[in-house]
């Protein structure tokens, strides 16, 4: 699982490198680091875990409350920026003293679903079963996503309470979330990495270690 912050201290960001003192299985600690540029990209001003080299076109990355990566990212037109955030606790784990990038199990619901829609926080689709029939299914994303200082969080719930806008672009969820003040931050999440189709039922998939 992720949530490296539970067993790591002295968490720092130097350029694209996240470092920390991480607890080992024997109870000691050791320094470890992971280069976020190898795991996070920039897609039109949003942090994108499908890409790499987010620092190309970034302004000045910082860590908020130990785990939230915050930056202004250049949009695809090259003329403007978005204030974007991503919660690293969703994706970085401590594997016996080593910071490790983790990924979600590939739900891949889109390959067997059609007529995707989003109303509020309810994702709906027509989902195929193994016998070839189809059924309508829905999933409330607010049961699985919360808000952590303006970033989507996999541990808490009710992200819509701090949202300024919620939209679906294909399988990509785009959300503007309020931080601790009045600022709003852009978040992007490909639901195809997180949602599966289990015999005609949309289901949220858990994190697995790479």
TrEMBL record:
Record-linked InterPro entries: Cyanovirin-N, Cyanovirin-N_sf
SMART domains linked to this entry: CVNH
Annotated SUPFAM superfamilies: Cyanovirin-N
Residue span, Cyanovirin-N domain: 3-101, 108-204
Entry-linked Gene3D superfamilies: Cyanovirin-N
One protein family per Pfam: CVNH
UniProt-listed PANTHER family: CYANOVIRIN-N DOMAIN-CONTAINING PROTEIN (PTHR42076:SF1), CYANOVIRIN-N HOMOLOG (PTHR42076)
UniProt name for this protein: Cyanovirin-N domain-containing protein
């Amino acid at each position: 699982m992720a949530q490296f912050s539970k067993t790591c201290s002295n968490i720092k960001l130097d350029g694209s490198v996240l470092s920390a003192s991480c607890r080992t299985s024997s109870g000691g600690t050791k320094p470890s680091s992971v280069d976020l540029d190898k795991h996070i990209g920039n897609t039109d001003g949003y942090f994108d875990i499908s890409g790499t080299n987010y620092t190309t076109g970034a302004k000045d990355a910082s860590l908020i409350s130990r785990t939230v990566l915050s930056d202004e990212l250049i949009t695809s037109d090259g003329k403007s920026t978005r204030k974007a955030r991503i919660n690293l606790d969703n994706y970085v784990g401590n594997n016996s003293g080593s910071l490790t990038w983790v990924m979600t199990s590939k739900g891949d619901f889109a390959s067997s679903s059609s007529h995707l829609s989003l109303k509020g926080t309810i994702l709906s689709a027509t989902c195929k079963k193994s016998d070839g029939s189809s059924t309508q299914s829905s999933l409330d994303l607010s049961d699985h996503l919360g808000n952590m200082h303006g970033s989507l969080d996999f541990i808490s719930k009710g992200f819509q309470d701090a949202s300024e806008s919620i939209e679906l672009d294909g399988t990509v969820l785009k959300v503007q979330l309020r931080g601790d003040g009045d600022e709003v931050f852009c978040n992007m999440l490909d639901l195809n990495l997180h949602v599966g189709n289990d015999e005609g039922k949309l289901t949220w998939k858990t994190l697995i270690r790479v």
